[in-house]
Amino acid sequence: MAILAFVMMNVKVGTDKDVVNRLRGLKGVREVYEVYAVYDIIAIVEAETMAELNNIVNTEVRKIESVTSTNTIIAEKYP
Question: Which residues are CB-neighbours of 30 under 8 A, at least 6 positions away?
């Protein structure tokens, strides 16, 4: 069963659209939303393993220069 996670992030002012577009091109990123809350962007990420999820968040998302912070929530899927 795949792992579903919500990755909430803050970005540098004025870079929202660029970050959204970059996130949409990443493997495992299913949906991306620009939001008006404590966070600037929320991405829904799906991975087969925790290691894959860790790689997506730490190697791909967090290395986008404009991303200043992330908070990842792992969801439990019910059949």
Answer: 44, 45, 46
- Give the residue numbers spanning the domain of 22: 3-75
Quick: pLDDT tens for 19-60: 999 999 999 999 999 999 999 999 999 999 999 999 999 999
Is the pTM for the entire model greater than 0.85? yes
CATH number, residue 66: 3.30.70.920
What does the angle CA 56 – CA 58 – CA 62 come to, to the nearest 5 degrees?
100
**The token pair that represents 65 in the structure block:** 């220069």
Query: 42 and 5 in contact (C-beta within 8 Å)?
Result: no
**Strands 41-47 and 67-75: what pairing?**
unpaired
The whole-angstrom distance between residue 44's C-alpha and the CA centroid of its chain comes to 6
